[in-house]
Design goal:
single chain; 367 residues; alpha/beta; seven-stranded mixed sheet; four-stranded parallel sheet; 13 strands; binds 6-O-phosphono-beta-D-fructofuranose
Length: 367
């Protein structure tokens, strides 16, 4: 069946991630060169579909030189559901969705590519149920999206976190310090787990394995007894003490999404008097999202962008492109947004880490 598509929209939603521009480049190149469609970029995520709308045509010239560029040329917002703010102003949520849908139709768009994480794909799925032909592209440094082995952006964040751990090793050793490095990841520990293994951490704290501070102390003491007077602890921002709660910088409200952050300070402050040893904290924060994507993320982003265009040509709406570990496939959005992808506590990476004497300071960890 010949495709009736002529004009497609694309937007980037949620927090930025290295590789967003590479996806845009691939979408524009494939849509224009292979299918002869035109492409419209929607600015600032879904918010560009509201009110006066913020849209602009994207042509080959707009995406030239974008492969290595971090951020997103379309802009993005990370404030939770795009319609919530308007709904809190008194409008019905359904009306806000309908307004965006009408603007999408008025712009003459035949399909929409949504490049985003779990929040953006949840909104994309809502639009799909309202009749909008959408295809998702999985983005997030957290790698917490269901339905795909990998999101683009993760590999770059992992490299940045690993380099930071490497650098902290030399200074920690020189000063006989315990250094805690807090990494992002929302309520999952993928960045902490993998950078911790790659960087040779002594302790890794992840949200999926509640930790005990006395087990962290025991690990540090054991190292001391072996003549190693420094320790590196990688802390996922969503890690929680057993029986405790995550630490937030901002619990959110209004148009502000909740922001995790600060758990490493809690651990350091609790550990210091137990160990009687200097414990210092480094919070990597947005450094993990900024700058140029790794070669792998450029590759993944390019494959995802072109696969999303192919999915539109095949009429695979309500799907997200995904990576199985060996090929690019499409997965129903319903499945991708059903839950976040957490680290299974018996994951092979967790087992490998324990075999390498890395402690998670959890119930099962001896030392
Ligand atoms: O989802 C990506 C991410 O970087 C998380 O790891 C982090 O918790 C959050 O976004 C931070 O969001 P913001 O940039 O809005 O503070």
């Amino acid at each position: 069946m010949a495709s009736t598509i002529k004009r497609i929209g694309v937007l980037t939603g949620g927090g930025d991630a290295p590789g967003l521009n590479a996806v845009l480049r691939a979408v524009v190149k494939a849509a224009i060169n292979i299918y002869g469609w035109s492409v419209v970029g929607i600015e600032d995520g879904f918010e560009g579909l509201l009110g006066e709308t913020r849209m602009r045509p994207l042509i080959a010239d707009d995406v030239r030189g974008l492969l290595p560029r971090g951020g997103t040329i379309l802009g993005s917002t990370n404030r939770g559901n795009f319609a919530r703010k308007r709904a809190e102003g008194g409008e019905a949520l359904e009306d806000v969705y309908q307004e965006a849908l009408r603007n999408f139709q008025r712009a003459g768009l035949d399909a929409l590519i949504v490049i985003g994480g779990e929040g953006s794909q949840t909104i994309a799925y809502e639009f799909y149920k309202l009749g909008m032909p959408v295809v998702g592209v999985p983005k997030t440094i957290d790698n917490d999206l269901m339905g795909t082995e990998l999101t683009f952006g993760f590999d770059t964040a992992l490299d940045i976190a690993t380099e930071a751990i490497d650098r902290l090793h030399t200074t920690a050793e020189s000063h006989d310090r315990v250094m805690l490095v807090e990494v992002m990841g929302r309520h999952t520990g993928w960045i902490a787990l993998q950078s911790g293994i790659a960087g040779g951490a002594d302790v890794i704290l992840i949200p999926e394995i509640p930790f005990y501070v006395d087990k962290i102390a025991a690990k540090v003491r054991m190292r001391e007894s072996q003549g190693r007077h420094f320790s590196i602890i990688v802390v996922a921002e969503g890690a929680t003490p057993a029986g405790g709660m995550p630490v937030y910088q901002d619990t959110g409200g209004g148009d502000r999404a909740a922001r995790l952050g600060g758990i490493a300070h809690y651990v350091a402050d609790t550990l210091t008097p137990i160990l009687n040893k200097e414990c210092r904290v480094v919070i990597l924060g947005h450094l993990q999202r900024g700058g140029t994507p790794t070669a792998f993320d450029r590759l993944l982003a390019s494959c995802y962008g072109s696969a999303a265009v192919r999915a539109i040509a095949r009429g695979l709406f309500g799907h997200m492109v995904a990576w199985t570990g060996s090929e690019i496939v499409t997965v129903p959005l319903e499945r991708c947004v059903s839950a976040i992808k957490t680290v299974p506590p018996d994951h092979y990476l967790v087992r490998s880490a324990r075999d390498l004497s890395i402690s998670f300071a959890g119930e099962e960890d001896q030392n």
